[in-house]
Specification:
Layout (H helix, E strand, L loop, with lengths): L6 H5 L12 H6 L9 H16 L6 E8 L10 E6 L4 E7 L2 E11 L1
Antiparallel strand pairs: 1-4, 2-3, 3-4
């Protein structure tokens, strides 16, 4: 799943205006080399390929959980691994060999 170079700036329209997502100095102050995506932006974005893999529509979402394990930088390609189960779908996401979401679980209607 590719991320857009402007994805963090667009996500700010939903109300999360932390400067670390668009301002290089604020990102460095937060311990990151450059601005990074909002965690919830990453989580929401991976929902689409997971729903597709599960044969569900994203609007059928009932529960979604995961551990934020690392940053996603605008322009990164996020790889999503899915483990279908009887009642829930497990997932992990990474950028290259760096985990970004771990222990994920999603349930659809």
């Amino acid at each position: 799943m590719p991320t857009g170079e402007n994805q963090a700036a667009l996500y700010r329209l939903l109300g999360d205006r932390h400067h670390m997502h668009v301002d290089p100095a604020a990102a460095r102050a937060a311990g990151q080399p450059r601005p990074f995506l909002h965690g919830l932006c990453t989580l929401a974005a991976v929902l689409f390929p997971i729903a597709d893999e599960a044969g569900a529509h994203p609007s059928d979402l009932r529960t979604l959980s995961s551990r934020f394990a690392g940053p996603v930088f605008p322009g990164d390609v996020v790889e999503v691994g899915v483990r279908p189960g009887e009642t829930a779908v497990g997932f992990e996401a990474s950028v290259g060999d760096r985990p970004v979401l771990t222990g994920g679980e999603v349930r659809f209607r």
